[in-house]
Amino acid sequence: MYEQFYGFSERPFQLTPDPAFFFESVTHKKALSYLGYGLNQGEGFIVITGEVGAGKSTLVGHLRNKIDADRVTIGEVVTSGLDGDAMITMAAHSFGFSVPSGDKAAALTAIETFLHEEARAGRKVMLIVDEAQNLSVGALEELRMLSNFHLGSQPLLQMVLLGQPEFRQLLEEWDELEQIRQRVIAAHHLEAMQPEEIEQYVTHRLSHVGWEGNPEFEPQVWKRIFEESRGIPRLINRLMSRLLMRGAARSQSRIDVALVDAVVEEMHGGASGVKQQMKQPIQMDEAPAAEPEDSHAEPVQEAQTGLLDVQIKAIEGAFADHEKAIAKLRDEVTSIGQASGNAPTGDVEKRLSEIEARLDEQERSLRHVLSMMIDFFEDSASRDAA
Q1: Which CATH code fits 26-190?
Q2: 3-state DSSP call for residue 227?
Q3: CA atoms of 98 and 349, how far apart (whole Å)
Q4: Confidence (pLDDT) at 6
Q5: Is the link from the previous residue into 165 a cis peptide, with omega within 30 of 0?
Q6: 219-274 confidence digits (pLDDT tens)
Q7: Helix ranges restricted to H, the chain
Q8: Worst-scoring range by mean pLDDT, 31-40, 296-305, 317-326?
Q9: Model-wide pTM > 0.85
Q10: DSSP for 118-148?
Q11: Contact call for residues 254 and 46 (beta carbons, < 8 A)
């Protein structure tokens, strides 16, 4: 892996959110200010929206790490199209209560009792709801009802709603959500990072894993990375992972624009081109077919170099090794058959078992390489589509 080649302690550009890598861009700094203000208010809804991969989950994870756990208790729900009753049940589960599915009364009782206990202990309670755009109007209304819990004049529950841009539009336009709109005390939409922040973001994550200048970066690459990623953190991570992987495969200690262009071309078309090539029947011991004179098909160059080339060679090598191993094992089977008249039955069975085990190992090895290749192609295709 590239982290070994460049001497990193871990991979710096994973696609999954990791608060340890939080980068305070201009837009994320504003979001933290809104969150801080909302937390000081201790009531109502805080709404954070942003494009897929804008860093909403990383932002809230960073916030959780900064909050004193002795003063604030946090529950978290990741939604996938919950209705009202399911929302209440999931909220109860987020605070550690096991209530029967569909028993709304039991869930509400557990939550209310818990909120009163926390308030008496001097602790605030926050519920974070991720992917809020998936919630039904009924589920959002149930969240509003939860915000009604008070101990005297003290509100007992504050909520942070994270969602994609359509959730922001939903809140602004739907008449049914007027009462929730009135209880939103802070809201912020995470914008993309600015062009001048790309280098800072990348070097920030690299420094976190021990980067000391290897690889170095051609100054022009930052503009190219911004153009491809549009300043969205997850897309930057995706591109940087591919860049470092290809750079390591080529033993490059400098990332230049040519490498970025090659990786971008691979990401947009390389996988599909190689998949199409693999669908063609393999011609053995025949001369290559001549290209049609009027052919306008673009040559698939991505498979000739870099990561795809390495992976294809790995598959070819696996096939070759597999065939050699099978041929060798067949010779052993023949040898056993010829000697079976004089060899004890137990010895023959033992040798056959050993051969079968080696065949199984070869099969597993081949399937592993093929699975890696398939995963690469499917992942590339699905991400390009998204």
Answers
A1: 3.40.50.300
A2: helix
A3: 54
A4: 93
A5: no
A6: 999 999 999 999 999 999 999 999 999 999 999 999 999 999 999 998 887 544 44
A7: 2-6, 26-41, 56-66, 84-94, 104-120, 137-146, 165-173, 178-181, 198-208, 221-229, 233-249, 257-265, 271-279, 306-339, 345-385
A8: 296-305
A9: no
A10: HHHTT-EEEEEEESGGG--HHHHHHHHHHTT
A11: no
Dihedrals φ, ψ of 155, to 5°? -65, 145
Q: Are 155 and 195 in contact (CB under 8 A)?
A: no
**How many CB atoms within 10 Å of residue 1?**
10
| Encoded amino acid at 107, one letter | A
- Cβ-proximal residues to 183 (8 Å cutoff; 6+ apart), any chain: 44, 45, 144, 147
Distance (Å, rounded) from C-alpha 149 to C-alpha 146? 6
Domain residue spans in the chain? 2-16+195-279, 26-190, 305-385
The residue-averaged pLDDT of 3-11 equals 92
Check residues 239 and 322 and name the one with the higher pLDDT.
239
What contacts 24+ positions apart, CB below 8 Å, involve 41-44? Answer: 41/158, 41/185, 41/186, 42/124, 42/155, 42/158, 43/147, 43/155, 43/158, 43/185, 44/147, 44/155, 44/158, 44/159, 44/183, 44/184, 44/185
Q: What does DSSP say about strands 150-151 and 184-190: parallel, antiparallel, or unpaired?
A: unpaired
Q: For the domain made up of 2-16+195-279, give the CATH fold.
A: Helicase, Ruva Protein; domain 3 (1.10.8)
> Average per-residue pLDDT in the chain?
78
pLDDT at residue 296 in the model: 38
